[in-house]
Amino acid sequence: MADWYWIGSTAGIAVGCGIALSGSVTRRALAALLAAAVGVGVGLALGEWDEAVGGAVGGLAGVVGSAPVVRGALTRGGTRGGTAALVGLAGLVVAALALVPAVGYLEAVTASVLAVRLRRHSGKRFAGLRILARD
Predict the structure, then answer these.
(1) Could you tell me if 107 and 55 are in contact, meaning their C-beta atoms sit under 8 angstroms apart?
(2) What secondary structure does DSSP assign to 14-34, as a single string?
(3) Burial of 24 (C-beta count, 10 Å sphere; 0-12/13-18/19+)
């Protein structure tokens, strides 16, 4: 039973690291590689190869899940430093929540689902009050 806890915790901590790296590293592929490496390092520090695999998957899920949010914030006028600070703080909170049993697994799944939903709706614009404007 302890093995399942540590795999989930490692995955969740790596999701938090991936989220933080997504905000601070400009290249998405480099952020994904670094997050997977950090996840493997955390996994090997906390356990064996199974925790390392969970950490790598969690790190990738964190980057993939938060990259559209970071890209959208920067596209809409956010500064790189401010976005990195806020996303880094969110990553720290996610990593801390991963210590609750089973939450690490939920974080990895939620980050992946978030990425799919954000990519599906990324090209659409919300009409808002523009729909009422008559030209």
Answers:
(1) no
(2) HHHHHHHHHHH-S-HHHHHHH
(3) middle
Helix ranges, 25-129 (H): 28-46, 49-75, 80-97, 103-120
On whether the CB atoms of residues 68 and 122 are closer than 8 A, the answer is yes
**Residue that the structure tokens 């799919």 belong to:** 116
Label residue 102 left, alpha or beta by phi (over 0 means left) and psi (-120 to 50 means alpha).
Answer: left
pTM attached to this predicted model: 0.82
- Sequence letter at residue 111: A
pLDDT in tens, the chain (135 residues): 688 888 888 999 999 999 999 988 888 889 889 999 999 999 999 888 989 999 999 999 999 888 888 888 888 888 889 999 999 999 999 999 988 988 888 888 888 888 888 777 666 666 566 666 665
CB 3 within 8 A of CB 50: yes
